Hints:
Layout: E1 4-12, E2 19-27, H1 28-57, H2 64-77, H3 97-124
Antiparallel strand pairs: 1-2
Amino acid sequence: MRYVAQRTRIVQDDNTGGIEPASTAVDNRSSLLPRIVYGIASIIGFFLVFRFILALLGANQSNTFVSFVYSVSHPLVAPFFGMFNYRVVYGVSRFEFETLIALAVYSFIAYIIVLISGKTYSSRT
């Protein structure tokens, strides 16, 4: 089953002087998945960017907001900790390469999912 939304706009025809509707069809199914994927990727990116900035500035983890950001983003960055001899040191300014790599990897994964899903939907129609 295919759901199609119709958008209609009014176009004036200069030759006849009349007004006629011009419509375009939009497949809602193919635009929903990219919005969901990019929405989730944006939330992940938000926490990773905040983690990177807080670590770079040496934020104190005893602060509630800083602790929350670190606890939410830790599982996202944990797979990349072994790349650069990560040591857990909070309150000291540190350039976290792991966080930047995690941000790049998750963004790339979101892009690939949207790219694959777009090709899947276009081949069905």
